[in-house]
Amino acid sequence: MDKSTKSIKNMFLNFFKKENHKVLDSSSIIPTNDSSLLFTNAGMNQFKDIYLDIEKPIYEKVCTSQYCLRIGGKHNDLDTVGFTNRHHTLFEMLGNFSFGAYFKYEAIMLAWKLLTSESWFNIQKAKLLVTVYYLDREAYDIWTKDIGMPKEKVILVGDKNKKEPYVSDNFWCMGEVGPCGPCSEIFYDYGKHLFGYLPGDEKGCGYRYVEVWNLVFMQYNRQYNNLMTPLAKPSVDTGMGLERISAVLQNVDSTFKTDIFSKTIAIVKKELNINYLNDYLYVIADHIRTCFYIIKNGIYPSNEGRGYVLRRVIRRMIRHLNLLGIEKACIYRLIYELKDVYIDYIEEKAINIKHIETIILYEEARFYNTIKKGLEVLLNKINKKEVKEELDGKTAFFLYDTYGLPIDFIVEICNEKDIKIDIDSFIKPMELQKSLSRKDSLISPSEKAREELDIKATSIFVGYNKLEYIAFIKELLFNNNKVNTIYEGQYGVLVLNKTSFYPETGGQVGDIGEIKTIKGLFKVTNTKNYNKAILHFGRVMYGFFRLKEAVIINVDAEYRKAIKVNHSAVHILNKVLCSYIKKKLIQKGSYITANHIRFDFICGKGKLLNNEEAKIIEEEVNEQIINNMLIVTKLLSFADVKENIKDNIIFIQREYEAIVRIVNIFGLSIELCKGTHTNRTGDIGLLSIASQYSIAKNIIRIEAVTGRASIAFVFSNKAILKKLKEVTNSNEYKLCDHLTHIKAEYNKLEREVKYIRNTHLAFYIESLIKELKAYNDNIIIKTIGSFYSSFLYLIAKCLIDNLRAKVIILNTKHGNNVRFIIGITEDLLCYIKAKDIIDYFIVNLKGKGGGSLKLVQGVGEFILFKKEIEAISNLILNNIR
């Protein structure tokens, strides 16, 4: 048989087609009917509503080859890519599905026939073994009696904690409630030459056994009380990784050695002039394929949602290129060379390769610029002695969170400067941020939850001129469920018949404030629209609130005033930009808060405003503010607007209500807008452009502050200027020249230091190789002095590339801890793997670590390290002999 990945995929689909299954196309990797998922992560996603009995199936038996991404949430393989031989961020899931047509017996028989029949995959039966849920006697009997598998190859897998029978690797659940059932996993045995434990072992499978197919038997419906009720129509959902079965059929022990990835890696090596193979190339080969598919589906890099996932994948690629010594944009160059590998395989011709190249190039350039800014801040702190012996986790998190500087980069720089970094204290603010996000989710339902709310109430907004009002509670929600009462300390949602709270819409944030009764106080933290209702999110500070109760509304006046001022400022900024640029300017969105404004637009090729242009724009906006023009709002019929003032308005929405609201800044602009505005432009006070940058292809973002925030911004800049003049002993006219000269001198000295350091390092490594070649022992344990401690990884890499039949353990002491690296030379990999050693080592060291088959690194307690060295040496020697 043709064993190319493409042929294996077609053989799977043809097999089930002959077994009367309808072959369906892969759904988009962007879920269309499930807002709980960023990306499609399983073959069953497109059939979820069928399993939930929301939708009736058109076909009772179907099969698919589904593109899946697992880069977040419950299923996240991002950090394991490159460190195992079978995980990918993007893969194809082959699957056959039965919606009541057949169940366990037929599913197992079909799987066995496809895998072992000479007409199909023809895998040796002796190479296969399976796991079965320990309470699923029916499946066990089918495997042992009907299939005839030896009982020792049918492994029963129990519950993880012996207390919850359905918390098991072999019991699949769609969620906390809903369809679920036992599953049977089929494993392939690569042989004794690879290390591994039997499937179901708590230590994992290692590399010997790989799961190729999971047969899920959905036979129960789990209730909220954990009660399992049988489904009227038990169903089957199976999933087999195309990349994994291709590795098995192509007789290779890693999915990265299959035809698709081997071609990708060969092109990457050729284009980047790399003449060796390591785990970093596996990461790049996986990630560039993932980026290709994500961008092909219309996703752009951004700071949230799917765009953030794409950005993270690209940045992780850049990080691994840096580790290969490549420090410039180059990923985009690979796309053209790889297009035939991907397009021919996925059978798509209408793909804009130039578009994908441009997006990746832009993101690469942006990230290198980000790294530059973050590194400047970090080095500045080190050079000013703000950071001496240790970088605290709070500062590390600030660099990570504010400048996007990866923690790997921070650790690397600190090691070079012989500065310790407490990773645990970095994790604390990260966890705090996550906990705050979780707390916010209690206040504001997730998008999925909001979609499922059953709110029939209608709210009327009366708050353009009234901040205080008396209304009635029409709906109460707690934990996204309707209730009659909410009590002190509970987060909830109030829906009123009328409200003065402006809901978040049109880029303007929702109002905050208080809702009171004689018996209680509800602190409103956000306000949003939902269908025809306005939702007030917040917490009961004291007392309680009941359905149909009268309440007193009190919107935070200062907060609203600041928003009004900023919204009017956005209109002025928009008009001034249009007038000055004199090209077609397309507004892509705005974000208006009480503290600042954000304005996104497309203009021409998306070039940023230069300093002079930004100065002119800022001056013109402030000129319009000083003119103190009247701002009038008026309700008109949309028909009148189109008839009488259409020439003055840009219509950007597809549909408009019959009655629309006009915001007229006399002498400047007329716009359709529902937002809140101040009465005169003079109320804005002063506008300062704080920053501008690109957020996507051709899209420019301007951030600005007004009023008191603007004055504070100006004074802050003046203070910085004064400090710079004092430090450089210069005046404002010569300051730029002075700083340029200082930076040039610094760069020169840095290059000289780097040259001296690298020369020393090269001599040290060369002498170390000569010294260790004379060692007769298979195991080398070497302590590296503090001067070279930051280059531990590089030293280890050079040693395993230049020595033979050696297991190298390098270590360097940091206080009471030890950092160590274990390397295995190529000729010993058939006997022992570095990954296996560290799995044993870190448990006894009370440490942590990881890496590849050939090279791993970790940290632990120094005293325990010294104690365990002898034990680990004996373990290694036993494996080698």
Fold and architecture overview:
The longest helix is centred in the C-terminal third of the chain and has 39 residues, at 735-773. β20 and β21 form a beta hairpin. The protein contains 22 helices and 36 strands. Strands 1, 2, 5, 6, 7, 8, 9, 10 and 11 form a nine-stranded mixed sheet that branches. Strands 15-18-22-21-20-24 form a six-stranded antiparallel barrel. It has a five-stranded mixed sheet with strand order 32-33-34-36-35, with helices on both faces. The protein has five domains: 5-257, BirA Bifunctional Protein, domain 2; 258-375; 447-555, Elongation Factor Tu (Ef-tu), domain 3; 567-726, 2-Layer Sandwich (Threonyl-tRNA Synthetase, Chain A, domain 2); 756-880, Diaminopimelate Epimerase, Chain A, domain 1 (Roll), CATH 3.10.310.40. By secondary structure, it is an alpha+beta fold. The model is unreliable at 434-451 (pLDDT under 50). α9 (331-346) packs antiparallel against α10 (353-383). Helices cover 39% and strands 25% of the residues.
